[in-house]
Specification:
Blueprint: H1 7-20, E1 23-28, H2 30-33, E2 34-35, E3 38-39, H3 41-56, E4 60-65, H4 68-76, H5 86-111, E5 114-120, H6 122-126, H7 128-143, E6 146-152, H8 166-176, E7 181-186, E8 207-208, H9 213-218, H10 230-243, E9 247-252, H11 258-263, E10 270-272, H12 281-289, E11 294-298, H13 300-307, E12 318-322, E13 330-334, E14 340-345, H14 350-356, H15 364-368, E15 382-384
Helix pairs in contact: 3-5, 4-5, 8-10
C-alpha cells in the first residue's frame, strides 16, 4: 500500500474508523487559540461546542490545550509576538495558566460540563509508575464525566523535562489512555502534495495510510504559524498514534464546526489510518516516551539478527558504544551507515559495554567479574524502528 489512499476508498475508511471511535483526544495549539489580544474567545467558544458535539455523540473526550503563555502575556501587558527568555516564559505560563483554565471553566460550565486541570512534564511519563498513575487519574476523571484539560507544565519545564511541543504530548496521552482517535487542530487545512501557494498542481492529501519519507517531505510544503511544533511534529504525532492502533486527523481549528464536518465525512483535513499491527503498550513506551541516553553501533550480522530474526542484542554484534549511561537505560541502535534501526533498555552500563563489546557471551564474566545477562538488550525490551 502506498502512503496515499484513493479518495473514495479513503473516505470509506475514514467513516469506518470514526464510527468505531469511542475515546477521543483533541489537541489545540497556540496558533489556533491566540489572537492579536491574547486568547481568542470566539475560537474557544467554537472549540467547546465541538467537544460538546463529541460528548453528545457518546464519546469520552480529553482536551490537550496550549495557550498558557499567550494568556500570561495578555495579563502582563506584553506584546503577543514578543520573544521570551526561559524564565520569562515560565513566569508568563504561571500567570496565564489560571486565566486559561478560568476561560475553559466558564465556557464549559455554560454548556453543563465540568473540567479538570492536569499539568505534566516529560519526566512524569518517562517514569513507568508515574506514567501509569497519570493514566489512572485521567481514566478516573472520565468515569466521573469530567473533561480532563491537559497542558505541559511550562512553569517548571526545562529542556530535559519538556515534551518539545503539545503535538507530542497529545499523541502520548492518546496512546497512554488507549484512545481511538487523535484530533490535532492547527492553523492550516492539512497536507498537500506540493506548496499550494506556488504549485498550481498541488492537491490536498485526504488520507494517509502510512507515514513515510514522502509524507514527511510534504510537511515542508505547509505554510502557517503552527505554534511551537510545526507540521513535522504533527506528522510524527500521527505516526506515534498509528503505531498503537489509533487514527489521527489534522485540520484547521479556525474552521467553524470542523469536528462535525470531520464526522460527517466532508472533505476536510488529512486523516491518518492506524497500522494493522498494534505495538504493545510497554514497547511503545520504550520507543516513543523514553529518551535515549546513548547509542550503540552494530555490525551487519547483529542488524540482521535484530531486524529479520527477532533476536536479542548480544555483545558480539556491538562495534561502538557512545554516551554515558547506566543499567536499564534506554539506548538507540544504529547500523554502521548511521541509520537508527532499534531502541531498547540496556542490561549493562556504558563503561561495562566498552569492555565487552565484540566479545562472545561466554567471555562476559571473565572480563567483568560477573554476568547478569547474556543479552545486552533482550528482545522483550527491544523495539525495531
Amino acid at each position: 500500500m502506498t502512503f496515499q489512499v484513493d479518495k473514495e476508498e479513503g473516505f470509506a475508511l475514514r467513516r469506518l474508523y470514526l464510527g468505531k471511535s469511542r475515546r477521543v483526544v483533541v489537541k489545540v495549539g497556540s496558533a489556533v487559540l491566540t489572537g492579536e489580544d491574547g486568547l481568542d474567545q470566539a475560537v474557544m467558544e467554537n472549540l467547546t461546542r465541538e467537544i460538546s458535539f463529541l460528548i453528545k455523540s457518546g464519546k469520552e473526550v480529553i482536551l490537550v490545550s496550549s495557550g498558557a503563555v499567550a494568556a500570561g502575556k495578555k495579563r502582563l501587558g506584553l506584546q503577543i509576538n514578543r520573544k521570551l527568555e526561559l524564565k520569562e516564559k515560565q513566569g508568563a505560563a504561571a500567570v496565564g495558566q489560571s486565566s486559561l483554565m478560568r476561560s475553559y471553566e466558564d465556557i464549559f460550565d455554560r454548556l453543563g460540563y465540568k473540567v479538570a486541570q492536569v499539568l505534566l512534564t516529560h519526566d512524569d511519563l518517562s517514569n513507568r509508575n508515574r506514567y501509569l498513575n497519570v493514566r489512572n487519574t485521567i481514566l478516573t476523571l472520565l468515569e466521573w464525566n469530567i473533561i480532563p484539560i491537559i497542558n505541559e507544565n511550562d512553569t517548571v519545564s526545562v529542556e530535559e523535562l519538556r515534551f518539545g511541543d503539545n503535538d507530542t504530548l497529545g499523541a502520548l496521552i492518546t496512546n497512554l489512555i488507549e484512545a481511538d482517535l487523535f484530533i490535532c487542530l492547527t492553523d492550516v487545512d492539512g497536507l498537500y502534495t506540493g506548496n499550494p501557494s506556488a504549485d498550481t498542481g498541488a492537491r490536498p492529501v485526504y488520507t494517509v495510510a502510512k507515514v513515510d519519507k514522502k509524507v514527511q517531505d510534504m510537511a515542508g510544503y505547509v505554510v502557517g504559524a503552527l505554534g511551537t511544533g510545526g507540521m513535522q511534529s504533527k506528522i510524527q504525532a500521527a505516526r506515534m498514534v498509528s503505531a498503537r492502533g489509533g487514527s489521527s486527523f489534522i485540520g484547521s481549528g479556525r474552521v467553524e464546526g470542523i469536528v462535525q464536518k470531520l464526522f460527517a465525512c466532508e472533505p476536510v483535513g488529512t486523516f491518518f489510518l492506524p497500522q494493522a499491527e498494534k505495538m504493545q503498550s510497554r514497547k511503545h513506551w520504550i520507543a516513543y516516551v523514553l529518551r535515549p541516553k546513548g547509542h550503540l553501533v552494530l555490525d551487519k550480522g547483529a542488524c540482521k539478527a535484530l531486524m529479520q530474526g527477532g533476536k536479542s542484542l548480544l555483545p558480539s554484534g556491538i562495534l561502538e558504544v557512545n554516551g554515558c549511561f547506566g543499567v536499564g537505560a534506554p539506548v538507540q541502535c544504529f547500523d554502521n551507515q548511521g541509520n537508527a534501526i532499534a531502541t531498547g533498555l540496556s542490561n549493562y552500563g556504558s563503561s561495562d559495554l566498552e569492555k565487552i563489546k565484540g566479545l562472545k557471551t561466554g567471555e562476559i564474566e571473565k572480563i567483568l567479574g560477573y554476568k547478569d545477562s547474556d543479552e545486552v538488550i533482550h528482545r522483550d525490551n527491544l523495539v525495531i524502528l
